[in-house]
Amino acid sequence: MLLAGLVGCAGVSHExxxxxxxxxESESVSxxxxxxxxxxxxxxxxxxxxxxxxxxxxxxxxxxxxxxxGRCREPTVVQVIARGDSLGTVVFIxxxxxxxxxxxxxxxxxxxxxxxxxxxxxxxxAYGDRTRPEGYRAVGGVVEIHRADSIIEGNLAxxxxxxxxxxxxxxxxxxxxxxxxxxxxxxxVFGPKPEPVPVRSGRR
Length: 204
Known about the structure:
Layout: H1 2-31, E1 47-54, E2 62-72, E3 77-83, E4 87-93, E5 103-107, E6 119-126, E7 134-148, E8 151-162, E9 167-181, H2 184-187
Parallel strand pairs: 2-9, 5-6
Antiparallel strand pairs: 1-2, 1-9, 2-3, 3-4, 4-6, 5-7, 6-7, 7-8, 8-9
């Protein structure tokens, strides 16, 4: 009976341990929040319309901003730019080898230079009632262009990261804007970085 009692106690002990482990695992899972990419918002003429998901409320944004688009010939890059009171977005697209803009573009990291063929770069700046603008860089995602004649129309789904705050945002947007030849100042951002001007000493 004593042996049976010990075995029974051991069984109860193992069951309690298993239950505690299951509860801990359940709590661990409940503490882990998985962000899901939002659905694309409905497209609006002349606008970039976006919605996002983030763990912190302050990093979530939704709205629609006036958009314009331009095509640079040298280098061959298409830009979509949206500006507003609370958000600024720029999309750099490196067209495919056959020159057709319509298609899918893999979003790559990068701050300077011309995007590689069939890739895109996306940058977002949030401002407005914030104490200082927050800059987000895209670390992955996709840009889809469905139309590109006198109008460019498409979607983007990107993962954004804030280096300063360590915040991740999932951004989904739809855009539709007139497509024109880009002004020179748009295209000049892809030029070589100017050489520093040497500072002369006052001595002779």
